[in-house]
Design brief:
The protein is mostly helical. The chain is 47% helix and 0% strand.
Amino acid sequence: MKVRKFFAAAVVVCLGATLLGGCRSEEQGRILSYKPGVYLGKADQDLSDEQNRALRERTILQGGANEIAGGPSGGTRDVRKPGLDSDTLKQRTQNQKGS
């Protein structure tokens, strides 16, 4: 009987600790009910003109285009090292194939 009461008490203590662990202060006030297509968080602050300019520049750089709006290069760029002739490139290809 004593063993059974001990295990029952241990289960109650573990359950209580688990439930109280879910009541952390940093988790209070978070959104629990979601609505599809509706942002329920805090409203964003407006960005300054300087921040908007910096973001636009980063977008252009990450997009991979050489020129703004495509430019004369058509948005493509040669990534090979300058000064490599076709014979050198053919030899490198053969070496990489292992033949």
